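Ticket #4471: structure output looks truncated?

Reporter: J.K.
Steps to reproduce: submitted the chain below (340 residues) through the standard prediction queue, then opened the result file.
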Amino acid sequence: MSEKIRIAVDAMSGDLGPRVVIAAAIRFVATSPEVELLLVGDQDQMQSLLSSSSAPAHPAIRIFHAPDTVSMHEDPLSALRHKKDSSMWRALLLVQERHADACVSAGNTGALMAMSKHLLKTFPGIERPAICKSMPVEQGSSFMLDLGANLTCTPEQLHQFALMGSVLASSTGISTPRVALLNVGAEATKGTDVIKRSHVLLSQDEQLNYVGFIEGDALYLGQANVIVCDGFSGNVALKTSEGVARLITRIIEKSFTRHWYLKLLALFMRPMLRQWRRELNPGAYNGASFLGLQQPVVKSHGGADEEAFYQALLVAKEQVAQKVPLRIQRALHATLKDSL
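Returned output as attached by the reporter:
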């Protein structure tokens, strides 16, 4: 019998706090018997929520007390120095001490990044992890990185992002992931000096199935499995995409309430409307990975509901099961070896 996957969860994180985390945790252990969740936070609050749940007590959920929390607006360096009794720090500490295999938090991104780097360390050659997230495309999904950890990047860093993203994509069953570099045009003459030099590095790496530049209007066509960019561009693209998805959902919903015959039509189209709502819901793709760390850390959206947090737990489970950090380490080692 194989060992259980253990995921440490910062239960006090996010805008909705432990109520959402506990609900997602109860559902998750019921559908993932190979996983044990270590919930870290205020013991009384968590125990009360677990007791009030209609679900039976589950041995795969364990509680670890932490008296403090990291606020969403707290300075990351201040949190790193002064929040060692927080649920975020203690959840990461469980991973560092090998009591857990991964950590999930919906808390302050900057603080989570700073604490993760301090406690779990990055692989040799990686100065700062990249935030990577799966995004829906015309067929399947694509991974995009960086999404905000590194606002400006060197060509070498973008090359590392490409390697790490390719490894993550291959862990999902894609044999030779297509890697593209986000740019303002598809021509070789377009883009900043950093983008042009990154293009050369990616083109020369035989580990990568590099397909060249991709423009913003092609992000969701499925032309690439991995899209590489700096954190500024990636974060703007991600937030814009989420906003457009919500706008389309609202337009569709309002369209069927304008006239009585449209309301009647909506009754017949209810299954399709539900499917559209699921496909356009950003929460269905919740869970951004901090690639480059020696152990998996997954950042959930701060406003995640139960379904979205459940998805973040799924991401963490898959990263542990597929040994993603180990695969990344091997890819980086091969690159460093070739450059010597």
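Triage note (M.O.): checked the attachment and the full token line is present. Residues 130-285 form a domain with the Isopropylmalate Dehydrogenase fold (CATH 3.40.718.10).
Status: closed, working as intended.
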